[in-house]
Design goal:
Blueprint lengths: L1 E2 L6 H10 L4 E2 L3 E2 L14 E2 L2 H9 L3 E7 L2 E6 H9 L4 E2 L4 H10 L6 E4 L3 H11 L4 H15 L7 E4 L3 H18 L12 H12 L6 H10 L2 H13 L1
Parallel strand pairs: 1-8, 2-7, 3-4, 8-9
Antiparallel strand pairs: 3-6, 5-6
């Protein structure tokens, strides 16, 4: 499952992984209006509130949440069908939704996508041209709340350069696939490529880095905060 604040770029990362055939991407359902570039059935399933509520009543959603007055949720049937076919499935969902899914699918891996800084997140939101000043302020305020939930996630990816963020996600998927759904270490020794993935993914594990990352976001430079932390540990 992939979460992160609006504007962090999680959608671009997930779309790239789908296009490259690295994993299937779950299509969420929402009551909000489509943006100009969004396609029904590919970006989201766009429904009205009555239709969404019928899915809730019938147990047809793996999770759902309400954000800025609109519902978002994950239809259950397509995800289960893809998993039964042996496909890796990415759910791009809100923090609240991710916690709901973990209650029923605890073997899932949780990845949080971060912007390099609050200023960069603001710049990206403004660049969309779809939000008022008040709307951007609300999204930045929500981003603070969401990033504070980082401790509940397994991995983090900083989307400074999109290509690097995609590569980080690919490494996480490969390692999770190698470990298997039970999290057991495979008996076969890792290849050199797998060893490189393990080293890379070890740096992406949240663990004790959560406070450093959260503080780095607030101060304006997550990568810099992590580098300072590594330097202090190395002394």
């Amino acid at each position: 499952m992939v979460s992160g604040p609006s504007g962090a770029g999680k959608g671009a990362i997930c779309d790239a992984l789908k296009a490259e055939g690295k994993a299937a991407l779950s299509v969420s359902m929402t009551t909000r209006a489509p943006r100009p570039h969004e396609v029904e059935g590919e970006s989201y399933f766009f429904v009205d509130r009555d239709r969404f509520r019928s899915f809730i009543r019938e147990g047809g959603l793996l999770e759902y949440t309400e954000v800025f007055g609109e519902y978002y949720g994950t239809p259950k049937a397509p995800v289960l069908a893809q998993l039964e076919r042996g496909q890796d499935v990415i759910l791009e969902i809100e923090v609240d939704g991710a916690m709901q899914v973990m209650n029923t699918m605890p073997e899932s891996a949780l990845v949080f996508v971060l912007p390099p800084s609050r200023d960069e997140l603001k710049r990206r939101l403004e660049g969309r041209g779809t939000e008022s000043g008040e709307g951007i302020a609300l999204r930045l305020e929500r981003a603070e709340i969401e990033i504070a939930q980082l401790r509940r996630y397994d991995y983090f990816v900083i989307n400074d350069r999109l290509e690097d963020a995609i590569s980080d996600m690919e490494a996480i998927i490969r390692i999770e696939r190698r470990l298997g759904i039970d999290g057991d270490d495979p008996t076969d020794p890792p290849t050199p490529e797998e060893k490189a993935d393990m080293e890379r993914v070890r740096e992406l594990m949240v663990g004790t880095k959560a406070d450093t990352i959260i503080d780095g976001y607030r101060r304006g430079n997550i990568a810099g905060a992590l580098e300072r932390c590594r330097s202090e540990i190395a002394k």
